[in-house]
Design a protein that fits this description.
Length: about 120
């Protein structure tokens, strides 16, 4: 395990890969979608649901590293906010990101859902 960690540390020192965390996973090598300030990595064939799960994983790892909030209610977050890209709401979880026109290093943000009367 130590040898693997040392090898991985050397790989992520490469200028093209230097922004990857040390605990990088296999899916991290294929595609990136970067919301402002939060680099999230998903496969090229990812769906909106895959992006949501990647955001959850990223925030979980960040909280573990920084010792922040222990629990985030993701059901509340997804019930209260939409993800948006270039002004378009990502409303269909099964729809591919590329169908929304999302490409490498595009920005995705949260927007509060409007209450329906």
């Amino acid at each position: 395990v130590d040898v693997f960690q040392e090898g991985l540390a050397m790989v992520v020192q490469d200028p093209l890969l230097c922004d990857l965390p040390i605990q990088v996973c296999a899916e991290c090598w294929d595609y990136r979608c970067e919301p402002p300030g939060r680099p999230v990595i998903v496969l090229k064939s990812a769906t909106v649901l895959d992006l949501k799960k990647a955001i959850q994983r990223y925030m979980q790892l960040k909280q573990e590293r920084e010792g922040g909030i222990q629990h985030i209610s993701w059901s509340y977050v997804w019930r209260t906010y939409h993800l948006t890209s270039a002004g378009e709401k990502l409303t269909e979880d099964r729809k591919k990101l590329r169908d929304y026109g999302i490409r490498n290093r595009d920005e995705v943000s949260f927007i509060k859902k409007l209450r329906q009367k």
